[in-house]
Structure formats: C-alpha cells, structure tokens
Design goal:
Elements lengths: L1 H32 L4 H36 L2 H29 L2 H4 L2 H37 L4 H62 L7 H19 L1
Helix pairs in contact: 1-2, 2-3, 2-5, 3-5, 3-6, 5-6
C-alpha cells in the first residue's frame, strides 16, 4: 500500500509538470478557433472540452485515491479527509447527472441526433466513473466501520455511522438516476433506429413498385393484360394500406 501511495505521489508530481502543457494546448487551441470554419471550430472545441474534462477527472481520481490510502495508513483525521473528498466527488457526479436527467427529459430534444449522441457519450462517461469509484466507496465504508469500532466515544461512533448511511443512500440515489437516464437514452436511440429502418424499408418498397409499374406500360392491350394490370394495382393498394 505504501508503494502504491509513493507511485501516486510521483504521478501527481508529474501532473504538476504537465499542467503547463495542458495550458499551452488550450491557449493554442483557443487561438486556432478564430481561424477555423464553423464545423472545424466545433470539432476542435469539442476535443478541447473532452481533454480538459478528462484531465480534471484524472486529477480528482488520483487525489481521492491518495486520500483513501493515506487514511488507511494514518490517523482518523485522514479518514475524514478522504470521506469528505469522496462526498464532494459524489456531489459533483450527482449534479452532472441531475443536469443530464433534465436535458434528456425533453422528448423533442431527444429527437436531435447530435444532442442525443452527445448525451449518450456523457452518460457512458459518468457510468464509467461510478463503476471505477465503487471500490473506493466500499473501502471508505470499511475504514469507517473499523474506525467506529475502535472508538471509545459513542457519539463520534454514531456520527461516523450516520455519515456512512447518508453517503450510502446518496450513492443508491445517484445510481438510480444514472440507470434512469441510460434507459431513457437507450429507448430514444432504439426508437430512432426503428424509424430509420422503417423509412429505409419504405423507400426500398417504393423503388421496387416504381420499377414494376414501369414494367406494366403501356396500359391496356389484351383483356388478360388489362385484368393482370388491374390485379397488380389492387395488390399494391392493399400493401399501401398495411
């Protein structure tokens, strides 16, 4: 565990050195936005946004993990620090999910393919973060239980237990919102795919019938030909009603 903590400390030091590089990339990227076309600028802005989000999340994850390790190796003060950092992180995730839930509640907006795909990507990123932090939650909960069991003060032990129960319920609530958003986006995407397939099938049917209709030319001729053409038209009309 000490080796892991040392490795994380070294990595955090490296991140400090990389901070200037990130700033430089952002500065150059923002300067380039004015010279790009609208579509190119949109793509560049999107990539810069993803870079900064991942950079921020990576820093947060490292610091949370470091705090958890320090809490395990040191005093209960460090446990409270780790617990608070996890609570803060969970609060940020809850806020992001709440915003996404509000956005995806608009059924008209869900029909916008670009927005829907962006929201699907955002949901996947949040889901991945939650999955990655579940072991951290279990570790913090275990440390809290061990710390509480070793305390002489019943009041402090109760306070720790209450905090653990509150964060556990918050975790359940956040997971529930994430599941709801994922289901909503999945259903919207499936509905879009269904509509696309239906339209594609309809276009194919129209093209086939157009070719068949041209093959019926000229209209008339022998009685048997006229009857055959009439039967064909009736079949087409029935298919159109389906």
């Amino acid at each position: 565990m000490r080796d892991e903590l040392t490795a994380i400390e070294n990595l955090i030091n490296e991140l400090e050195q990389k901070k200037e590089a990130i700033k430089d990339v952002n500065a150059k990227g923002n300067a380039m936005l004015d010279t790009y076309t609208r579509d190119e600028a949109h793509n560049l802005s999107h990539e810069l946004s993803k870079l900064n989000m991942r950079w921020s999340k990576f820093n947060d994850n490292l610091r949370i993990r470091r705090a958890v390790l320090e809490a395990t190796l040191r005093s209960r003060t460090d446990f409270h620090t780790a617990f608070t950092e996890f609570e803060d992180w969970l609060g940020r995730i809850a806020e992001s999910l709440s915003e996404l839930e509000t956005l995806t509640a608009n059924t008209q907006s869900l029909k916008d393919t670009t927005k829907r795909r962006e929201w699907i990507q955002k949901q996947k990123e949040l889901e991945a973060e939650l999955d990655a932090h579940e072991p951290v939650l279990r570790s913090v909960e275990e440390m809290g239980r061990k710390l509480g069991a070793g305390l002489d003060s019943g009041k402090e032990r109760t306070e720790i237990q209450n905090r653990l129960e509150i964060v556990s319920q918050r975790w359940i609530d956040v997971r529930s919102i994430e599941n709801s958003v994922r289901k909503r986006l999945t259903e919207a995407e499936q509905e879009w795919e269904k509509l696309t397939n239906t339209l594609s099938s309809l276009i194919g049917w129209i093209e086939d019938k157009s070719k068949e209709m041209l093959a019926q030319q000229p209209v008339g001729g022998s009685l048997s030909t006229v009857m055959a053409q009439g039967a064909w038209m009736k079949n087409v009309e029935k298919e159109m009603e389906v």
